[in-house]
Amino acid sequence: MATEAGGWLRRELSPQHYYRVGLTGFAASMSSAEAQRLGRMPGVKAVHPNVTYTPQLDAGPEWIGARDIWDGPAGLNSEGEGVVIGIIDGGINWEHPFFADVGGDGFDHTNPRGSQFGLCSQAEVLCNDKLIGVYDFTTGNTNGRDGDDHGSHVASIAAGNRIAGGLEFAPGIIVPINASGVAPHANIISYKVCVADGVDGSPGSCSGGAILAAIEQAIVDQVDVINMSLGALGVQRPPPWLDLIADTLLDARGVGIISSLSAGNAGPLPNTISSSGNAPWVMAAGNITHDRIFGQTATNLSGGVTPPPDPLVGGGLTQGLGPRRIVYAGDFGFPLCGSGPAELAIGCNPGDPDPLTGASNPFTPGTFNGEIVVCDRGNYGRIEKSFNVRAGGASGMILANTQNSLANIASDAHCVPSVHIDADQGDDLRNWLLAGDNHQGLITPLGRVQDDAFANQLSFSSSRGPNNEIAGIVKPNLVAPGSNILGASADGGGIAFLSGTSMASPHVAGAAALLLGVNPAWTPAQVQSALETTAIPDDID
């Protein structure tokens, strides 16, 4: 076909991908005029643009009830044994213990397909009986390896092995965990379709042509579940019956493969579900919080003329500090710890990805002298605020929500030891700082904090319905934990904390794998029905 098309266009075409399963066609570079001309060639049904897709970015399995199936009675229990999940994303870190042949619980995986797939025959691609396939549909010559955390993170949420003990988040910061993916005994095939953009946690751009090729390969490989934490928005969002990716996912469903997609991160506006998650034959997952934060505490509070608040428990991924004097940034003229346009970068040091420059910093050197500075939330990036107070001479930060700011608590790798607290705690702290002097306290090192009050908050960025393309089809289909989720990083045995509907979708994919482990003959419709009709309704706004 490509040869005939080249003859029609009077030049040789160099297809990047051929499609022979769900579609009959190919992907190749051409001008818009050539595309229009090719559309008039006899036998050509349609010519579609190559749409660019983007990513939609431990306690989660417990929160969604996975343990009820893990520990169910004989014959009704499953951890995903024998189920294969296809991860269409940014590649995978095959060296991570989340993807080892033998998990931390001693479970020795078996390859249910009996053979390995894709690039596993290459010496540098370390497949095993857990990770049974690796493909690379990009042009980056990376052999399917993850370059920016996202693909490995998503795969570990869906089906990462059990891990106990501690993993390194950053130099000197060990996160104590007892974690696993939702279906820890399931098998994984990784399909790399995204190229890195240099920002941790984001695989950058993902070619629609590569995604189509990956879905077709997943059909050929007979995976049981597909997870695709990718989406396109705006003018790139066609109705599902004109969306080639949605159409190919319908072919996948027709052969028994259930697909979980991220709903998108374009909230809180309505009708923002990304394609191809708006299709009725896939499940689109929205992002809610769960009950765990890896957090820190501001404690041993003393000084002032009124009784100090109780210990302030919140989010943080930093080392401890203290005791130090505590001051309020508002007393220095800048309660938000910023001035002018926000940078919204995340790197604390020049060599970090996406480094901050201090463009929004209102504090001259020497403004502070080693204090812990209280910053109100709002307008500026959370890490940006810690960068600014550090530049002003502070040693630590307490980031305090206000009654008018976002309500969630985030665990971030700040530039100084920090803790992020909610609005009620923030009010107590600010009121205490109003009177007297010599307010003191310390920030504890990183630890695990669980509280039901943290859970079931819909992320501000999570895309909302309704699904205007098809009236009567509810989107998103489900919500699942997607905020501050612990998962595998792209390097060694490290971890990353990422947020977004990208992290919610693999919770749903893993849940589907658990159900298939108990009911291997179930159709995609039965799995989807079971998940949706047993989900717990909540007043999520």
Task: Explain this structure.
The chain is an alpha/beta fold and 541 residues long. The protein folds into three domains: 2-47, no CATH class; 53-290 and 455-534, Rossmann fold; 294-452, Glucose Oxidase, domain 1 (3-Layer(bba) Sandwich), CATH 3.50.30. Helix content is 20%, strand content 23%. The chain contains eleven helices and 26 strands. The protein has helices at residues 2-9, 32-38, 60-63, 66-70, 150-159, 208-221, 244-254, 382-391, 423-433, 501-518, 524-534, and strands at residues 17-19, 25-27, 52-55, 84-89, 117-118, 131-136, 163-170, 173-179, 187-192, 194-195, 205-207, 225-228, 230-231, 258-262, 283-288, 292-302, 312-315, 321-328, 372-376, 396-400, 418-421, 440-443, 447-450, 478-481, 485-488, 495-498. The strands form six sheets. The chain has an eight-stranded parallel beta sheet with strand order 5-6-9-4-12-14-15-24, sandwiched between helices. Strands 16, 17, 18, 19, 20, 21, 22 and 23 form an eight-stranded mixed beta sheet that branches. Strand 1 and strand 2 form a beta hairpin. Helix 5 runs parallel beside helix 10 and helix 6 packs parallel to helix 7 (244-254). The longest helix has 18 residues, at 501-518. It is globular. The N and C termini lie far apart (51 Å). The model is unreliable at 198-203 (pLDDT under 50).
